[in-house]
Amino acid sequence: SHVQPDLATSATWVIISFLMLVFMTSIALGTATATLVSRSLGEGNPSLAERFGWESVKLGMYVMGALGIAVIVDPGPFLGIFTDKIEVIRVGAPSMRLIGAVSSLLSAGLILVQALFGAGATKFVMIAELAMHGLCLVPLSYLLAITFGLGLLGAWCAAALYVVLLSSIMAWKFASGTWKKIQI
Prior knowledge:
The protein is an all-alpha fold. Helix content is 85%, strand content 0%. α1 (5-42) runs parallel beside α4 (86-119) and α4 (86-119) runs parallel beside α6 (151-176).
């Protein structure tokens, strides 16, 4: 993918600006979830803590899923919020569609990270995040974008895989219920 570096950089910043909406919404839901999980565990009600976690994930996935579908259908207006440069929108559209496709999973992963924080599973989250960044996101971004020449879309493909891993690993940990037994 031979895109001028300044266009790829501009498109990346526009996509990141859009992603901030997903991040802020999901982390806000996650922070509320962490509080509810922590409080429920403190009250000796782990089943309520689990219910709060999954209900928050559903809410985040519904909201970000709807947004993601709109982005997949037509990324132009969303990119256009942050830039009026047609070339940046053209270059960013395929990556933006990809991000739209995983936005509900990103929301689920971020909410579950916060829920696990609320339960005291901070060490697990830290180790998992370090492993995913160091073994997946960074090397795969380089491999796809540079080595295989996929450019901007390759880097965002690596980010999409990271999101799938994040949501899968955090859902596995949350579903395991081991966090219910952590002593804080």
